[in-house]
Fold each of these.
Amino acid sequence: MLKGTELANLTQGRRATAVRAPATKRVRTVLCVEDSPIIRALVVEALNSHGLRVIEASDGKEALSQLEAHPEVELVVTDIEMPRLDGIGLIAAIRASGNKRLPTVVVSNRGSDEDKKRALTAGADAYLVKSEFSQAGLWSIISRFLGDHS
């Protein structure tokens, strides 16, 4: 039989082990769609620097496969000019699917008002011209959709 102090020590030991570790921060997932490996690496680096998990695709067709394989994707960053399926076609396919609310951000060389209007009409949520690209600028846009958790 345990004495009072032994029982108290055992109880305290149980309390100490019952303390849970702090909850881990949820990792948000973004899909980066860009056919240029250099530009894709820059975008991925910018997103990773804010703690985001990035899945990559080199064109719209690959992006659709990635979206199917990764339903946890919360935002798409896409170029417009790509082989097989361009960014406009990708955005239209996303909007036509069950992912109507999946935010899409275009990062493109094309900077005319007509190009921007075409992308926004297809369903893009934001547009950034590559010549104006910066990590801070991209994050400013993306954080509107994901929330600033940097």
Note: Residues 5-19 have pLDDT under 50 and may be disordered.
Amino acid sequence: SVCGVGRVDVPFKISNGGVLCWQYQLWKDMLSRCFNVRYKETHPTYKDVTCCAEWLSFGNFVEWLNKEVGYSGKLDGYQFDKDLIIKGNKTYSPDVCSLVPQAVNSLLTDHGAGRGEFPVGVTFDKGRGKFRACLNCFGRQKHLGYYTTIESASFTYKTAKEAQIKIVATQYKDVLKPAVFESLMNWKIEP
């Protein structure tokens, strides 16, 4: 069994010349995030993450994958996501998981632990004595302005980020599950 719970129940080989098929690796990594105690200790954001009973079967996972929007026999620029349809979701399951383009998935990374004491998108500029709002636009920082209060800087960031999410969702609409697109169009940034 995989992680003490997963069943490899498919009629094909999961490896070729010692190289695991990517579908199996994706499934195995998911199970590790859900059931590997050591992984959960080193990645505390996965502390309460689990997986539905249906996906303890590799065969069931592959069956879902074969029907998933964005699947074309390989991932090629897509990522496996569990919390775009339901924000903050902690259970991997067919109803809420999706394959999404990397550009969509990376939009919603907030770097919580590494961002410090201020809300996402806000830093303090000591030289100016003001709060700075910045937005990451595809790997580049976009300066949004300086503000006298954290709240003003955070509001500016939130407004710009929510607009950016809608623009990117619209660009990728044809390759997103309808539920993912709808969720992105209604996404709210928490300060």
Note: Strands lie at 15-16, 19-20, 50-51, 78-81, 91-92, 98-101, 122-125, 130-137, 140-147.
